[in-house]
Queue: 4 jobs
Job 1
Amino acid sequence: MPPAVTPAVSPGQTSLTFEAEDIDELKDTLANAGYDDAAIWDEAFGRVLSATAPDGTKLWIDERSKDMYGYKVHETRPEERWSVTPGLLGVDQSTWERLLDVLGTDQPVYYGPGAESGVRLELTTNEDLDDVLRRLTAAGYEATRTDAGLEIMDPDGQLVVVHE
């Protein structure tokens, strides 16, 4: 029997990850901005940069693959009805805004309260939330309508919020 494989992340954890064209350049950019612990290593699927945010959160940045290892890239368009926004909970917003600026991302981020820092996905749809609620319920998911939108627990026990 093959040895058991232990995943790097336990179920129920959501990590904040990025993708960059050139992680060597990004490592230099981070070092120049005072993020000195950035490290790069090779994985089976490509190169990865890790760095630590000021609050201790570990960031993972994959280098965009140039060698697809036999896989084919399919150009797709984003689903027009849905968008995903990462939510950073229980963090110092100004510190994270500075870090995200250094990383060069213009991705909108939701900042919210939390007893401890964490990451949560926030979904936004242009569909009627009652229609989405009916589909979720019909598929066996338990969703709750709140003032913020719909709240659903994902299979790992993480809260997902859907906004209209």
Job 2
Amino acid sequence: MTDDLDRRIVDALVDDGRKSFVKIARELEVSEATVRQRVARLTADGVMQITAVTNPLKLGYEVITMLGLSVEAARLPDAAEALQGFEEVTYLIACTGRYDYLAEVTCTSSRHLLEFLNTRLGEVPGVLASESFGYLSVLKESYRGGS
């Protein structure tokens, strides 16, 4: 269970994942040991992880697309496993609504995306239909958990 202090520590790390525990402790008026213990618990409990967030466009990936996928109900687990295995799939969620899965696909070029859609996607068991949504511009990106 998290409390207000946990959320404030998470917010501090969302702002700057390299911020020292000493600096966070000073800002929140608690001891460094408290921050260190809380961060250890939050990461161990799977509440958060501290990782680098990349900008695919600056790493040479020119095309980012969200795919909406409709999948045969009996093949949902198989499809998810196959999609998770593709390097191009950077984000995969099961969702409500029109699609069973939303998959973010990051490619080096339009040709790479075309190859993915025409070849790799066909390897996914049970896919009935797909619709692609090419990213033109990212207007908001947040890693905050609703606080």
Job 3
Amino acid sequence: MGEVGYGIDLNVVRRIAQEVKEVHDLGAEVALVVGGGNIFRGLKESAAGMDRASADYMGMLATVMNAVALQDALEKRDVFTRVVSAIEMREVAEPFIRRRAIRHLEKGRIVIFAAGIGQPFFTTDTAAAVRALEIQADVLMKATRVGGIYTADPRENPNAVKIEELSYNRVLQEELAFMDASAVSLCKDNNLEILVFDMTEHGNIKRAVTGERVGSIVRASAGSSAK
């Protein structure tokens, strides 16, 4: 969305695509899960009072639009990309088949997962956790607009403290709202680490993948280091 009120800011899409390409060029297997809030925000008034399931399906369709935009930007940079949708729409995306998605990654293609898991009442966070587990990802990286996990929203509270390492249990017990509880629980049950970082800072995607200290990490056992 960038600086616009809603919709797609192509400059942001191009920047993200370039950073993802740099990660891909390192030889990493990359799968992306995209949300649809930037588009759905423009439909929010229309969806007011709408049945939750219907609104969720509209949100899923918005994620497909974002995925196609990102695919276009990546392929303009000569990166082979596949959009894989949980809702079947063969003209614009492949249906989700777990083994096929893994095969795309093995062949060096970037996979963009769209339409969540195809069911209402599940967030993009949960979809990301599910897909990460299905493809046996090494880590789930949540790209946000803040520098990690804080004791409060740093955009609203200047006294918020960044927590660099913390456990799944602490996240759930203190209800730290960087990701919904069901997604965190899935990661906890399967020991999938979560890295939360600011994607608006240029180069952070590559820094996160190459192991530089960016953002906050959630794992089974962690200290309480704060900054």
Job 4
Amino acid sequence: MCPSPILTGTILVADDNLANLELLSGLLEVEGHQVRCVLDGRQALDVLRTDSIDLALLDVMMPEADGFAVCQAIKTNPETRFIPVVLVTALTGSAERIRGIECGADDFLSKPIKREELLARVRSLLRLKQFTDVLESAETVLFSLALSIEAKDPYTEGHCDRLAKYSVALAERLDLPAEIQQALRRAGTVHDIGKVAVPDHILLKPGPLDSDEWKIMKQHPLIGERICRPLKSFRHVLPIIRHHHEKLDGSGYPDGLKGKDIPLTAQIMQTVDIYDALTTSRPYRKALSPKEAFAIMDTEVKKGWWNGALVKHLESLAAEPSSVLDDKSERKLPV
């Protein structure tokens, strides 16, 4: 059997017992890891805010903030949630293990620490972190590509960011699960990534497209889905990319889906997409006010195009004080 390649990383070790810190840091440094040692949970959180950490070993019983609290903080922060966390404890009861799992712990180590067990768990979790980093890199490339497409047209500046925020706000109003909100956040950025295959003379045409140009434009949801399909983490994003240009009466594209056959997430994205298009300036017209935009959307709901309930929910969001839909700072007109 071929040995696995040795991975090294920067490991945070948090324990209020100096002897334990010295033992753990010594074992890890011999293996080539860089170790950041802290004596309590508050210091651990400070390090996580400033340093790039690949793995956290947290003693459960610490002052300031215990291992459970630090673990939960790591796993609920989008910037750190993919850092593997090992809880180190002398507690043997199942209740403590269950609490650790609920806080998001990836693994447990029981005291007294056994060298081989420690190193085996660290190697395993660093491999997991490496896979996660590769996934994040792939997502970053897709997001960068999508934003580069947006940047071609000064009239669409900030469009992707607004759609991500609007769709998540609407999903929160509907009390949809966190994974669906995450899918909508990602889809807000990459929903039109398939336009990378649309020639600029069509994509940036100031006037109406002719029939041949429309045939090309209508391919972009299919192309976008194909570009993003290799990422398994995008399984909830793909239907949004493919179907956000469908209409409830079946007159949309690319598949001509009707009614409930159109995924709810795609209907959410199309609703906020239409609102943003109407309230943002275009070469052929000025931005409409929210009141004007919703009047048009209500008319199109009556035509059977859009989900009236979603439009009403979005309208109620727009009416709230300090609404996320009322951020005019991102609707800069092109110079």
